[in-house]
Design a protein that fits this description.
Number of domains of chain A: 2
Strand content of chain B: 25-35%
CATH architecture of the largest domain in chain A: Roll
Structural class of chain A: alpha+beta
CATH architecture of the largest domain in chain B: 2-Layer Sandwich
Number of strands of chain A: 5
Oligomer: heterodimer
Largest sheet of chain A: 5 strands, mixed
Shape of chain B: globular
CATH class of the largest domain in chain B: Alpha Beta
Radius of gyration of chain A: 16 Å
Radius of gyration of chain B: 28 Å
Number of helices of chain B: 19
Structural class of chain B: alpha+beta
Strand order of the largest sheet of chain B: 3-6-1-13-10-11-12
Helix content of chain B: 25-40%
Largest interface: A-B, 57 and 62 residues
C-alpha cells in the first residue's frame, strides 16, 4: 500500500481535507470517502459517462481520474443540483416531466453533462443536443425522452 | 403539472423520480456498513481446461487480505446450482441440466468462471491479491461453433454426457409434410442470430450483513427476483426463510440477466459473511460483466415456409441450433420462446419446429430482453419477405393475407409455451394494427413515389414493416398488500423488484383510482422481502400485468372495507358512498363523510373489540395468478437510407404501433418501447460479441462493444391500440420487450429494400457497417 497523500477539495461548496492513497479513483473518493453516492460508476473505463462530475465547472469522468488530481479543485456532483429543500432544478424537472429516466442509474451523469452543456449553449439546436447526449450511455430510454428533457430544459433557460 | 384522477391511461409523472434525480436513491453499491470487507474473484482466463493446481498461499499472506476461498474450502456448500426453470412437459423432450459450481473445481468451462474468492479490507487490496493466486490450467480445445460442437470428435464440455447436446425438442402443430405437398412455392434459408449482452449500466452487486447476535442476514442484491433469492439462500445456508431478508433496492437496469439465480457471487458472499462475521460487498466491474453476467442470442435456423401462389402460408418447418453456453440453468425458456414466437400473428396451419441446444465454452445464456422471441420473429418475417419477392406480392399485402382474424380468439396453437401452459393467444386485433402502421409510415406513398424519386437521384432508401406478438404476463402469481394509514397515505407493498419500469407510479395509479386518493399519496414498496415475501420476480414483461393486478385486487378489497365501515359510521348504505379526494362521503350529501385517514384510525381503535368476521385497520393482501400469459402484439415500420460505399445506415423514421391491452401510463409505455427499440437497433447493427476459436471474447469493453448512443437512435414514433386482455380485471398485457422483438427483422428488410437490385440478401443479425459492406461487396462479385 502506498503512503497517503493529503488533498483539499471543495465539493458542492463544502471544503474537505482528506488523506488518500495515490491510486484512489476520484469516483471512489466521491462515493466512499465523501459518501456522495449519487455519482454512479457504470464502466470504470471512461465510456458510459455515469460517473460524470463537474471539475472546475467542466464535465469529467471521475472513474478515470485520481482523487489526488482533484487537490485544490472545485467539484460539483448531482447532489448539488436541487434546491436546499430538495426542490428540483429546471433540468431535473424537465427530466421528470418528459420521463427522461427509467432505472435512473445513468441519470446523474446525463444531468452533469447537460448542466455544463446548457450553461455554455443555452439555446442549442437539436443536433447539438444529440451530440452532447452522445457522451453518455443509457440502456433504458433509447434517448428519446432524454432528448425531449434536454430540449425542454434548454427552453426553460431562455428568457 | 400535477396529474388528476382518474389516473388510468394518464401521463402521470413518476413518483420515484425525485429520489433518482437528486442522487438520493439507494443502489446496492451505495450500501456502506461499518466493518465491511470487500470481495474480488479470481476468474478463469481459459475457456476450457482442467485445473491442475491452485496456490492461494501468497494471497493469504498479503496484508489486508482476510480470506481466500477456493472450491476445496467450501465443503458441503460446493454443489451445482439449481435448475431455475424446468422444461415444459413436451413428449420426447431431451434435457441435460448442467449447472455451475460456485467455484470451479476440476474444470473451467468459460472465460470468467470464478475459481477463487478473495476477501480484503478494500476492493483495491482484494484486486491486488488476484495476481497472487497461482492457478494452473491445462487447456482443452474450446467449443465455440455450434455445429462443430455437436461433431463426434468435439471436446466434451460436460464429461458425464456423451456429447455437447444440452437439449432436443420437437413441437408440432398439424402436419408440415402435407402442407409442403400442397404448396406452390417453398422458400428456404439459413438464418443466423448471434450473441449480445444486456449491458445494464449498473453492473451486478451484492452486499451481505450477517448479524451473529440476532442471527439475521440482510442481503442487498441487484436481482430481479429478491424473494426466490431469499428462499433459496435460506435453504442452502440452513437458515429459516424468516432469518434472511433480501432487498433489491433501486436496480440500475435488469433486462433479464439479473433474474438469473444463483450467480456464484450471490451464493458465496452470504456463506463467507457467516464465517467471517463481517459485512461483505462485491461489485462487478464492466469487464467481469462481459464474462460473468449471462448473455443471450446465438441461434442458427434452417427454416422453410410453404405457401400458395397467392401468398397464403400453408406451413413452416424450422430446425435450429441454440447456444446455451457452458451451463443451462435457465432450462429451455429461450429456445421455446423462439419456437413459439415464430408463429407470430399469422395463421400457420402446419408447423414443425425442432431445436437442439448445444453446450459451448462461452458465458451462460439466459433470457435478455426479448428472450429468444426476436429470433423466431426474424425467421418468419424474413421468410415472408422472401416469399413476397418470389411471388411478386407486396410485403404488407402478404402479411395482411395471413393475419389471424379478430373472430378467431382465443387461438390455441397446440404447442407448449415457456410457462408450461399451452400457447394460447387470449385476444388481439392484428389487421388494423398493420393498416395503421402502413398508413402512418406512408408505406404506399413511399414505395410508389418517394422511393422511385430518390432512387432516380442515386439514393438508396428502403422501407420495412414487420409484425410480432409477445407472450407476456405469465404466472405463477404475484401479491400485494395495500394499507390505508392514519395519515391518509396509502402503502402498497409488492414482491417484484424494480429496474426502472416505473412500478412506484403504475402500481400507485391503479391503487389511487380504486381508493380515490392522490397518486402521490400512494407509497409503493417493491423488492424488499421484509415488506412482502410471496412472489417470483420481474421477468417476461409480467410486472404490470401480474403484480399490477394483485395491487388492484388488494386495493379493491380495501375499498370494500372502507365502504363497509363508513356505511356503519355514517349510517349511509354502501352503494350511496363514494371515494374521492382522499375521503369517503355520502353522494346525496357530500359534506357528510370523513377522510380515509380518519376512517383508518377508527378501524383500529384503542378501545372496543374487533367484531367477528372483521379485521383491524384498512388493509388487505391479495394475489393474482393467471393460468397463462396475455399476448401483446404490434407492428414496427422503418425507413432507412444506406450509403453503399461506407455501408452506414441512417434510420430516417422508426414507428411502433402496438397493442398491450389497457394502458396504465402511456408515457411510461412509450419509454419502454423506446428503450426496447434502441436495444433492438443495437442488436441489429452495432452490438456483437466476438469470440475467437479458443472461446476468448475479443471485445469485452464499451470501447469495443458498441452500444447505440443518442446519435444512433432516431426519435421513435408510437401509436397505441388497446385490445384488453380477458385474463385480468384491468385488461393488461405486458410491454417490456415489445420494442426489441421485430427490430432486427424490420431493419434487415428495410436495408435489403434500400439495396434492392444489388443482390444483397440479409439472413443474419447482428449486422455492422463492416459486415454489411462485406455483403455488398460479395453481391457485386
Amino acid at each position: 500500500m502506498s503512503a497517503a497523500i493529503a488533498i483539499r477539495v471543495r465539493v458542492n461548496g463544502v471544503r474537505h481535507e482528506r488523506d488518500v492513497e495515490a491510486r484512489l479513483l476520484l469516483s471512489d473518493f466521491i462515493r466512499q470517502d465523501l459518501a456522495l453516492t449519487g455519482t454512479h460508476v457504470g464502466c470504470e473505463h471512461g465510456v458510459c459517462g455515469a460517473c460524470t462530475v463537474l471539475f472546475d465547472g467542466e464535465p469529467v469522468r471521475s472513474c478515470i481520474m485520481l482523487a489526488v488530481q482533484a487537490d485544490g479543485h472545485d467539484l460539483q456532483t448531482v447532489e448539488a443540483l436541487a434546491g436546499p429543500a430538495g426542490e428540483l432544478n429546471p433540468l431535473q424537472s424537465a427530466f421528470r416531466a418528459e420521463h427522461g429516466l427509467q432505472c435512473g442509474f445513468c441519470t446523474p451523469g446525463f444531468l452533469m453533462t447537460l448542466t455544463a452543456f446548457l450553461r455554455d449553449n443555452p439555446a442549442p439546436t437539436d443536433s447539438e443536443i444529440r451530440d452532447a447526449l452522445s457522451a453518455n450511455l443509457c440502456r433504458c430510454t433509447g434517448y428519446h425522452h432524454i432528448f425531449e428533457a434536454a430540449k425542454r430544459a434548454s427552453r426553460s433557460t431562455l428568457p | 403539472m400535477p396529474a388528476a384522477p382518474p389516473y388510468l391511461r394518464a401521463r402521470v409523472p413518476r413518483n420515484e423520480d425525485a429520489r433518482l434525480l437528486t442522487g438520493r436513491a439507494l443502489f446496492v453499491d451505495d450500501v456502506q456498513l461499518p466493518g465491511m470487507l470487500h470481495v474480488a474473484f479470481v476468474r478463469s482466463e481459459h475457456a476450457h481446461g482442467r485445473i491442475t493446481s491452485i496456490d492461494a498461499s501468497a494471497a493469504r499472506l498479503r496484508p489486508g487480505v482476510h480470506a481466500v476461498y477456493t472450491a476445496a474450502d467450501l465443503g458441503d456448500y460446493l454443489k451445482p446450482g439449481p435448475i431455475l426453470v424446468s422444461p415444459p412437459p413436451i413428449p420426447n423432450l431431451v434435457f441435460h441440466g448442467c449447472t455451475q459450481l460456485p467455484l470451479a473445481k476440476d474444470k473451467v468451462r468459460h472465460v470468467g468462471e470464478p475459481i477463487a474468492m478473495i476477501v480484503a479490507d478494500s476492493r483495491y487490496v482484494a484486486e491486488d491479491a488476484i495476481r497472487d493466486v497461482v492457478v494452473e490450467i491445462a487447456p482443452i480445445d474450446a467449443v465455440v461453433d455450434l455445429e462443430k460442437g455437436l461433431a463426434a470428435d468435439a471436446p466434451l464440455i460436460h464429461e458425464h454426457l456423451t456429447s455437447n447436446l444440452a437439449a432436443h425438442v420437437i413441437q408440432r402443430k398439424g402436419n408440415y409434410a402435407s402442407a409442403k405437398a400442397k404448396a406452390d412455392i417453398i422458400v428456404k434459408r439459413r438464418f443466423h442470430y448471434d450473441r449480445g449482452v444486456s449491458a445494464a449500466i449498473e453492473n451486478r452487486a451484492v452486499v451481505v450483513d450477517w448479524n451473529p447476535k440476532s442471527e439475521e442476514m440482510t442481503i442487498w442484491d441487484t436481482t430481479q427476483a429478491p424473494i426466490p433469492i431469499r428462499n433459496g439462500l435460506a435453504a442452502m445456508l440452513g437458515l429459516l426463510e424468516s432469518q434472511v431478508n433480501v432487498i433489491a433496492p433501486f436496480v440500475g437496469g435488469g433486462f433479464g440477466p439479473k433474474i438469473m439465480m444463483f450467480y456464484p457471487e450471490e451464493l458465496l458472499l452470504p456463506w463467507a459473511a457467516m464465517r467471517l462475521n463481517r459485512p461483505l460487498k462485491w461489485t462487478e466491474d464492466r469487464q467481469e460483466n462481459f464474462y460473468a453476467t449471462t448473455q443471450e442470442r446465438g441461434q442458427v435456423h434452417d427454416a422453410e415456409m410453404a405457401l400458395t401462389k397467392d401468398g397464403r402460408i400453408l406451413g413452416v418447418h424450422d430446425v435450429f441450433l441454440f447456444d446455451t453456453g457452458a451451463y443451462d440453468p435457465y432450462g429451455l425458456t429461450i429456445p421455446i420462446n423462439s419456437q413459439c414466437t415464430l408463429i407470430g400473428p399469422y395463421d400457420i396451419p402446419d408447423y414443425e419446429s425442432e431445436f437442439t441446444a448445444v453446450f459451448t465454452n462461452k458465458t451462460i445464456v439466459t433470457p435478455v430482453r426479448g428472450a429468444g422471441r426476436q429470433h423466431g420473429v426474424f425467421v418468419s418475417e424474413r421468410l415472408l419477405d422472401l416469399a413476397a419477392r418470389e411471388l411478386g406480392i407486396d410485403r404488407v399485402e402478404i402479411r395482411k393475407r395471413n393475419l389471424i382474424g379478430p373472430d378467431k380468439f382465443p387461438v390455441n396453437h397446440e404447442i407448449m409455451f415457456q410457462d408450461s401452459a399451452p400457447l394460447i393467444y387470449d385476444s388481439g386485433d392484428y389487421l388494423p394494427t398493420l393498416e395503421q402502421a402502413a398508413e402512418i409510415i406512408g408505406y404506399e406513398q413511399f414505395i410508389r413515389e418517394e422511393q422511385p424519386r430518390l432512387r432516380a437521384e442515386g439514393r438508396h432508401v428502403g422501407v420495412g414493416v414487420a409484425c410480432y406478438v409477445e407472450g407476456t404476463g405469465i404466472g405463477p402469481y404475484e401479491g400485494a398488500r395495500v394499507t390505508i394509514e392514519p395519515s391518509g397515505k396509502v402503502r402498497c407493498a409488492t414482491g417484484v423488484g424494480t429496474q426502472g419500469q416505473g412500478h412506484f407510479t403504475v402500481f400507485a395509479q391503479l391503487v389511487a383510482d380504486v381508493l380515490g386518493v392522490n397518486v402521490v399519496d400512494v407509497k409503493v414498496v417493491t423488492g424488499d422481502t421484509r415488506e412482502f415475501h410471496w412472489g417470483t420476480g420481474t421477468f417476461a414483461s409480467r410486472g404490470a400485468v401480474v403484480a399490477g393486478s394483485a395491487c388492484h385486487a388488494a386495493a379493491s378489497n380495501v375499498r370494500e372495507k372502507v365502504l363497509n365501515l363508513a356505511s356503519v359510521l355514517l349510517n349511509v348504505p354502501p352503494d350511496r358512498l363514494e371515494l374521492s379526494g382522499g375521503r369517503v362521503f355520502d353522494t346525496d350529501d357530500p359534506q357528510r363523510g370523513m377522510s380515509l385517514g380518519e376512517l383508518s384510525g377508527k378501524a383500529n381503535p384503542l378501545r372496543g373489540a374487533v367484531r367477528p368476521g372483521t379485521e383491524p385497520g384498512l388493509e388487505s393482501t391479495a394475489y393474482f395468478g393467471p393460468d397463462r400469459g396475455s399476448t401483446a402484439s404490434g407492428v414496427h415500420a422503418i425507413i432507412v437510407e444506406v450509403d453503399p460505399e461506407t455501408a452506414t445506415v441512417e434510420i430516417k423514421r422508426y414507428l411502433v404501433v402496438h397493442d398491450c391491452g389497457t394502458i396504465i401510463n402511456p408515457m411510461l409505455v412509450e419509454g419502454q418501447i423506446h428503450g426496447g427499440v434502441a436495444h433492438g437497433i443495437g442488436n441489429a447493427f452495432y452490438e456483437k460479441l466476438v469470440y475467437d476459436e479458443q472461446g476468448q471474447l475479443l471485445n469485452a469493453s464499451f470501447m469495443d462493444y458498441l452500444l447505440p448512443t443518442a446519435t444512433d437512435v432516431p426519435m421513435i414514433e408510437t401509436a397505441h391500440r388497446e385490445t384488453p386482455s380477458p385474463y385480468n380485471v384491468v385488461g393488461l398485457k405486458g410491454v417490456g420487450e415489445a420494442g426489441c422483438i421485430p427490430t432486427g427483422a424490420v431493419f434487415a428488410q428495410a436495408v435489403e429494400d434500400a439495396l434492392a437490385g444489388s443482390g444483397v440478401e440479409i439472413t443474419e443479425i447482428p449486422l455492422s457497417p463492416n459486415r454489411l459492406f462485406e455483403l455488398i461487396e460479395a453481391a457485386r462479385k
